Amino acid sequence: MGAHQQQMQGFAKYNREFNDRLYKLVAGLSDSERKKDLGAFFGSIHGTLNHILLADRIWLGRFASAFPAMESLQQAQLVQQFSSLREELYADFTELSTQRQATDKVITQFADELTDTQLASTMKYHNSQGLQREHPTWVAVAHMFNHQTHHRGQLSTLLHQLGHDVGVTDFVAYVT
């Protein structure tokens, strides 16, 4: 197993474990607290959680198109078309949480299935503005994980504003 494969598996582990912790904390909030516009890019905690799940499913859809034989993506909930990056997938927090766990399982299986050959291959897809993009697959996979981390950082701030501490967010705390 190559270093890129191990790195993506580490990112998947971090994603899954931090999401579990984050969703447990957010479950303790009222629906109105979760959906209150706190001035974040996607408005609320709920809006940001929905965006992260939407973006993950968009990326998984792109990976499924690039690698149609990948078993991990065969039965997964994927997004191939969407109207907005603000699209709400689930208004109900319990359903959002259940779907987050299911997608994190797919991401973990996907990371386990990725090969160095796939990661080094060139991937082509259309971005959210419809422009064709082309670059090594490892760049796209790393971006998916980086995107999650970016928005979870925003969630950490939003939760802090409500008086809640998400705890340690450092990658090394989850993979070592």
Structural notes for this entry:
It is a single chain. This protein has about 180 residues and is mainly α. Helices cover about 60% and strands about 5% of the residues. A two-stranded antiparallel ribbon has the order 1-2. A hairpin with a 5-residue loop joins strand 1 (about 120-125) and strand 2. The protein is globular, with a radius of gyration of 16 Å.
Shape summary: globular
Determine Rg (CA atoms, Å): 16 Å
* Low-confidence segments: none
* Overall number of strands: 2
Order of neighbouring strands in the sheet with most strands: 1-2
Q: What sequence of helices (H) and strands (E) makes up the elements? A: HHHHHEEHH
Backbone structural class = mainly alpha
Strand-residue fraction?
Answer: 5-15%
End-to-end distance: 18 Å
By DSSP (H or I, 4+ residues per run), the number of helices equals: 7
Main sheet attributes: strand count, strand direction, barrel closure: 2 strands, antiparallel
Provide the residue-averaged pLDDT: 93
> What is the helix content?
55-70%
Describe the structure concisely for a colleague.
The protein has 176 residues and is mainly α. It has 7 helices and 2 strands; from the N terminus they run αααααββαα. α1 packs parallel to α6 (137-161).
Spell out the blueprint of helices and strands.
Layout: H1 3-27, H2 31-35, H3 45-66, H4 93-113, H5 116-120, E1 122-126, E2 132-136, H6 137-161, H7 172-175
What are the key terms here?
176 residues; mainly alpha; two-stranded antiparallel sheet; 2 strands; 61% helix; 6% strand
